[in-house]
Amino acid sequence: MAQHQVNYTKDGGLPVMLTTVDHLINWGRSNSMWFLTYGLACCAIEMMASGASRYDFDRFGTIFRASPRQADVMVVAGTLTKKHAEFIRRLYDQMTEPKWVISMGSCANTGGMFNTYATVQGVDRVIPVDIYLPGCAPRPETLQYAAMLLQQKIRRERAFKKLPKKRLV
Amino acid sequence: MREYRPKKDVQKKSYYRDRFYVAPQVPREKIEEGSRFFDDVKSLGSKFEVKDSYVEINQLVVIVESSSIFEVIGYMKNSLSYDILNEMSAIDYVAKCGGFEIFYQMLSLSTTKRARIKCFLKEGEAIESVSSHFRCADWSEREMYDMFGIRANNHPYMKRILMPDDWEGHPLLKTYPLQGDEFAQWYEVDKIFGKEYREVVGPENRDGAMIDRYDTKRFSRIGHEVEYGASIDLGEPDTNLKYQEEKGVFLIKKLKPEISKELEKRK
Ligand code: SF4
């Protein structure tokens, strides 16, 4: 091996075996994304609708969990008020790595129509966001598309990469 | 009622306000003998100082001294059978007359009459809490304190109710900016990360309609996605909407759009 000068620590230099493990783990991860039920306002209704039988989120392997410690993906569905900002950060910190965030609806993206003193102008001021869904409220199809995009994103990632610190403090 | 303006050529006109416009007032009726509120006002007047009283849209309005409000509300409840306090809050008249108007909207179920007790409170003064007469006043007074900064004496739990406990300022005051003062704008950053992270997080973007098509770090066009941060000044490529990777995913059936069926009609 040494004669080929393979640098195992670099991208593309990994042995075949490891990439397969990567695939396997990512395949597992991407097909069992457990969502944290995090409905904050009207968008939560659409989130619930996507979980219910008509849109049937379970076929993607997503199960809504009521505890951040069992969840991989946080769907911020609704308006984040300044009073609540502290708690969303605390819940996010309680989720185990690897974790992802979907910001659902205009309110979560930018504060939306609540251009006031009491609303956080975009959840990305508080937690890092992976996917932003436009809409007020986004249809369940949009959330499903987001889940599929997130699956693709997870499959692209390396399973054993050193996770960048997602905490600011 | 909203002021009427002819709407035919609004687009052509520049915006202006009619300087001589006076908002229409609801007519006020005097309370004379024979009115259904006559007895109430008379018995109130014999006990307390009533500054003014009239009837507005079949509702009695009584203006009393703010120092006697606790006794007035108690008297209304116990002797005049106004047994429900529907609503109470304050109105900010600080700029106009240096204080607040506090109103108590009451309903009597046995006589089906409604009454509004009003009093004027100077800025900085406190009002007597009526929460021992009406339990619902407990939260209303907390809200009044939260929104206007008017304290209620002898209140069981005089704390903010809507805004966080460590909030500064009282948002329903007319002097409070709608988009928040500096404290409000940095509240979540200061609280979660600390003041030194203000520069990292940056100020709030208050323009909800802001879109920069060429900023590929924060925006991406559906169907024209490019890499994060790529330059698209010379136009962006078309990308097909893709639900799965080209190669497919292990054990997962690939969606074939060409063999999927579109229903003409909802089943
Ligand atoms: S984006 Fe619209 S639907 Fe969603 S929480 Fe905000 S106001 Fe409600």
Explain what the structure shows:
The complex is a heterodimer of chains A (169) and B (267). With 169 residues, chain A is of the alpha/beta class. Chain A contains 5 helices and 5 strands, in the order αβαββαβαβα. Chain A has helices at 16-30, 43-51, 82-94, 105-110, 140-156; strands at 34-36, 63-65, 73-77, 100-104, 131-133. A 5-stranded parallel beta sheet of chain A has the order 2-1-3-4-5. In chain A, helix 2 (43-51) crosses helix 5. Chain B is an alpha/beta fold and 267 residues long. Chain B has a domain at 21-153: NADH:ubiquinone oxidoreductase Nqo5 subunit (Beta Polymerase, domain 2). Chain B is 19% helix and 18% strand. Chain B is built from 7 helices and 8 strands. Chain B has helices spanning 38-47, 69-78, 94-97, 137-148, 182-185, 187-192, 198-201; strands at 28-29, 50-56, 59-64, 84-93, 99-108, 113-122, 127-128, 152-153. A 6-stranded mixed beta sheet of chain B has the order 1-2-3-6-5-4. Chain B has a two-stranded parallel ribbon with strand order 7-8. In chain B, strand 7 (127-128), helix 4 (137-148) and strand 8 (152-153) form a beta-alpha-beta unit. The longest helix of chain B has 12 residues, at 137-148. The radius of gyration of chain B is 30 Å and the shape is elongated. The two termini of chain B are 48 Å apart. The mean pLDDT of chain B is 85. The complex binds iron/sulfur cluster. Iron/sulfur cluster binds at residues 41-43, 78-79, 105-107, 112, 136-137 of chain A.
Beta-strand content bin of chain B: 15-25%
Amino-to-carboxy terminus distance of chain A:
42 Å
> Helical element count of chain B?
7
Bound molecules: iron/sulfur cluster
**What value does the Rg of chain A take, in angstroms?**
18 Å
What summary fits the major beta sheet of chain A?
5 strands, parallel
- The tally of strands of chain B reads 8
Helix content of chain B: 10-25%
Structural class of chain A: alpha/beta
H/E element sequence of chain B: EHEEHEHEEEHEHHH
Oligomer: heterodimer
The largest sheet of chain A has its strands arranged as 2-1-3-4-5
Question: What string, H for helix and E for strand, traces the elements of chain A in order?
Answer: HEHEEHEHEH
* Parts with pLDDT < 50 across at least 5 consecutive residues of chain A: none
